[in-house]
Design brief:
Helix content: 40-55%
Shape: globular
Bound molecules: coenzyme A
Structural class: alpha/beta
CATH architecture of the largest domain: 3-Layer(aba) Sandwich
Distance between the termini: 79 Å
Strand order of the largest sheet: 1-7-6-4-5
Radius of gyration: 22 Å
Number of strands: 13
Number of domains: 2
Length: about 400
């Protein structure tokens, strides 16, 4: 049997109409546009209308993806919906989406791996396609975080937004699709990003609601440290597995959580900023919807061509992280060899040259990472000291 590849044949995204700007937030909590932009890169985010929940947004994005793929919902074999904000804890939001779409033959699963959810779903879907088991799988990442955040907590409410992104994955004979992947979880960080009052550990009592334990709690600094470490490591690992370096990447699509986290990874990896998709300023962190929203916008902007190699990377609650190298296909594109071509040398030598190239790049990234870690170890105490002095002085005044 011929090898089967997974191809993204359809994509679609949806963001609610209502836009909440930093100026709007200034009226709600003690914050400023200057603080939000300089610390996160976010200028505005979309917020779902009352009653507009995860399934409704998923439906919009999914219909667009199906239309683009030119298939009907009843051709779908499986629906994977990644979300941490389902309409209900039970039933699964994926089954409600299946019903709304009219995808009568499809299995449906809801995946809860925080902001990493879409990539977990995409990589899982590719396995079903590449084994030949399924022909078409719909992968959706949707989040109604405006429901989950405490709108009086400035530490979290400025960061998040609502939205949805979907792709249709189909079988293809053209080489490409998933080239390498990584799914990880550092479960000892499970309490760094948590909705403590919802679930089987806690009864939803008036006291829980009083403490606002039904809303998102986050240890921002801990998540920041985790994110900056794993973003670089994950990209390094998937590129090494694919026998590539950052120079072979046409577009990096990182999870849009904080522009500073993205910038640090970009510097460490040594990738040109124009090869990095960033749209956080208009959406904030839309969690599981962040990567597919960025992917859709990159496609709409013509930033992805057939044959391009894309790296997608995400991190989130769990603490989970995931990454993959994906080669964009079109039926017209012939397989592009990764190896250095046109050399009159045996394949083993070409492979060795490729491995040496990857190893040299790895060492550069590791050196840059060590240097920036050392700089931060020196700068952070100085920064904290300066902040302490400023605070004392302003109290004395
Ligand atoms: N407006 C103004 N001040 C704010 C604020 C806001 N919205 N939110 C927090 N602050 C204050 C804090 O109270 C703190 O004040 P203090 O020094 O008097 O205690 C100060 O700003 C600095 O806080 P700090 O935590 O050092 O800021 P930071 O530079 O680390 O940025 C985050 C905070 C949350 C933006 C950053 O830690 C982050 O992005 N973390 C990762 C979060 C994330 O990605 N979560 C989702 C994962 S998928």
């Amino acid at each position: 049997m011929n090898r089967v590849y997974s191809q993204i044949t359809g994509w679609g995204c949806y963001a609610p109409e209502r836009v909440l700007t930093n100026a709007d937030l200034e009226k709600m909590v003690d914050t400023s546009d200057e603080w939000i932009v300089s610390r996160t890169g976010i200028r505005e985010r979309h917020i779902a209308a009352p009653g507009e929940a995860t399934v409704a947004m998923s439906l919009q994005a999914s219909r667009r993806a199906l239309e683009k793929a030119e298939i009907s919902a009843d051709e779908l074999d499986l629906i994977i919906l990644a979300t941490s904000t389902p309409d209900y804890l039970c039933p699964p939001a994926s089954s409600m989406l299946q019903d709304e779409l009219g995808a009568s033959r499809a299995g449906a699963m809801t995946l809860v791996t925080g902001c990493t959810g879409f990539l977990y779903g995409l990589i899982t879907a590719a396995q079903f396609i590449e084994t030949g088991a399924y022909k078409h799988v719909l992968v959706v990442g949707t989040e109604t975080l405006s429901y989950g955040v405490d709108w009086e907590d400035r530490n979290t409410c400025v960061l998040f937004g609502d939205g949805s992104g979907a792709v249709v994955l189909s079988q293809s004979q053209t080489p490409g699709g998933l080239q390498s992947m990584l799914l990880r979880s550092e479960g000892d960080g499970w309490d760094a990003l948590i909705l403590p009052g919802i679930g089987s550990r806690t009864e939803l009592t008036p006291e829980v609601i009083e403490r606002k334990d039904h809303k998102l709690k986050m240890d921002g600094r801990r998540v920041f440290k985790f994110a900056t470490r794993v973003m670089t490591d994950a990209v390094l690992e998937v590129l090494t597995d694919a026998g590539l370096t950052i120079d072979d990447v046409d577009l990096l699509i990182p999870h849009q959580a904080n522009k500073r986290i993205i910038d640090l990874a970009v510097r460490r990896l040594g990738i040109a900023p124009d090869k990095v998709m960033v749209n956080i300023e208009r959406y904030g962190n839309t969690s599981a919807a962040s990567v597919p929203l960025a992917l859709c916008e990159a496609l709409a902007e013509g930033r992805i061509e057939p044959g391009d190699r894309i790296v997608m990377v995400a991190f989130g609650a769990g603490l989970t992280y995931a990454a993959c190298v994906w080669q964009w296909q079109s039926e017209e594109v012939e397989e592009e060899p990764i190896l250095v071509t046109n050399w009159p040398v045996p394949e083993s030598l070409q492979l060795m040259a490729q491995e040496m190239r990857t190893a040299a790049w790895r060492m550069q990234v590791q050196a840059r990472t060590a240097a920036s870690d050392a700089a931060m170890a020196v700068m952070l105490p100085l920064y904290a000291f300066r902040k302490g002095v400023k605070k004392r002085l302003s109290k004395e005044e």
